[in-house]
Amino acid sequence: MNYYQHRRPEVLALVQTPPAKVLDIGCGAGIFSATVKEKFSAEVWGVEMSPVAAQEAAERLDQVHTGTFEEVASQIPDGYFDAIFFNDVLEHMTSPEAALQAVKQKLAPGGKVYASIPNFLFAENIIRLLKTRDWEYTDSGILDRTHFRFFTRKSILRFFDTNHYQVERCQPLNAINS
Hints:
The structure is a single chain. This protein is α/β, with parallel strands linked by helices. 32% of the residues lie in helices and 18% in strands. It is globular, with a radius of gyration of 16 Å.
């Protein structure tokens, strides 16, 4: 599957209250966001750093800003979004702490942040590292060569707590990747 084409039904299943206004940071080609838009009849905005993927997303979403979140955050309204998604994005950011702080301003009262984070301690990953004694980066997945950060369940919970977020739920999204 193309790196920018993920549907993410397991993330969509987490949304309990239908959002009216959504921001998808790292929206790729807008496949997930378009599903959110259709399912909830929501206004959906995206942020995507790949110009090619952003152009595809712009055909599906209400607004798309091309660039990193840090580059375009000032163009996104404060207090506007009911739901903000980071689907496997925070680990790619040079300063995910700054992104989480900036996102607080973009949330409407009662808004929620949804984040999917690869768990470095995924058993198959650890077994592979122990067997091969080699850290070999890949084009996608836990050892994606574009990751700046690696998280475990414990460290991501601490990360959100340190940044003054209340985590309502933390669960494996893919049984095979938990």
